[in-house]
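Project standup — Tuesday

K.O.: blocked on the structure for the chain from last sprint. Re-posting the sequence here as requested.
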Amino acid sequence: MLVICRLKFILAAATIWITLLLSLPQQAAGAARIVINKGTNQLAFFMDGILLDVFPVATGRQPGYTPEGDWRIVVKQVYPAWRNPAGGPLIPGGVPANPLGPRWLGLNARGTGGSSYGVHGNNNTSSIGTYASSGCIRMYNDDILWLYDRAPLGTQVSIINSQENLNDWQNTVRVTVNGSVPQYEPHLGPVRAGDATCLPVRPLAAAMGYQLYWDEASHFLTLANFEREITAKPGSDRVTVNNQVYMAGKAPFILADRIFVTIDFLERFMGAEICPEEGGRSLDLKLPVNTAHSGLARYHLSLRVNGKGIDLPEELAPLREGRNVLVPARAFCTAAGAAVSWNEAAKSVEIVNRASRVLIPVNGSPPLLDGVVTATRANIRVIDGTSYVNLSFLTGVFGFLADLDKEARVLNITTDFTRVLSGPGSV
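H.V.: unblocked you, prediction finished:
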């Protein structure tokens, strides 16, 4: 198919511009690669040497129509216009009668300048998977929209003719969690990196009941549920689980602005049971999610009260619930000089500090400060006999001063009101 410009001088200028552009270093071009197999009408897309996905396509009606060889993308157009090579009116882009669809990736095949052969959309979905074109490669419109945004000018496009199913290049094509498919983004599910199957960690974490935190400044990833807190850094094989250091077989990595981890990472560090199905082409990850602890994430912090370090056992590590930090009420308040007890009559945790007395009902009712209802939420959670309370509540009602150093993971508390702690991490 032929994309025709209205004016010859525009076409000439475009040719000069393309020549100049290809003579310049293309930073993103080396990251993307496309393989098109005419024999099976499939297109494989690679980024940084990793196979992201395989797409169905349509190729030439005759064996010689779609040119085999190694080419480059030299033209990119949004809603390209089209004119039938046999003649006829110019059909503008974006209308139903235009067979090119919403995007055009022009190739320099057979010495052309990117206007004769290309990868594009379609206006006839039934043709995808067949031999139907005059030489171009047709895709579903949703697929070409996705590919267009990830295949820069200069991307290598190899067109081959083989009976090999490109889906066989993928180790695992389907991964579920507890029998359900996670909410992957389009074409960003399981990928093959060398011999390893890797997955985007965010949808997997959500399906497995983990909270995910990303520190842009330090480039550290934290995955946490009630039982575990895992920290890792893309590109590093060092992984910390509940303050214990381990070495990953393959480091997490960033691909398409997403963090990917291996199946081994999910099993060793996140506790998933790996259940192969269909000869290993499908995997089900089994990890029971405790709904009673939903939304809670372990948060290992060093606690210092008035400059003195307080040792908290692993089972009393602070928790995160959204933006709130929950601390074990008895251990925290005792270290801060307050008395903590259980008030059976009121079914409440009772905290007395100097002249102030607080009752925190475990049924979620508003707390009482010296017998008066306070609007400040305590966010109390009772887990295995331990009461966790929102740190901001305790600092608010008792006047404790708290400074959280997120980078050092140190929570400094002072009950000496002559001192003022300040800083960007103050709670």
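K.O.: great, moving the ticket to review. The CA atoms of residues 340 and 351 lie 5 Å apart. The helical segments are 8-23, 141-148, 201-207, 263-268, 329-335, 391-398.
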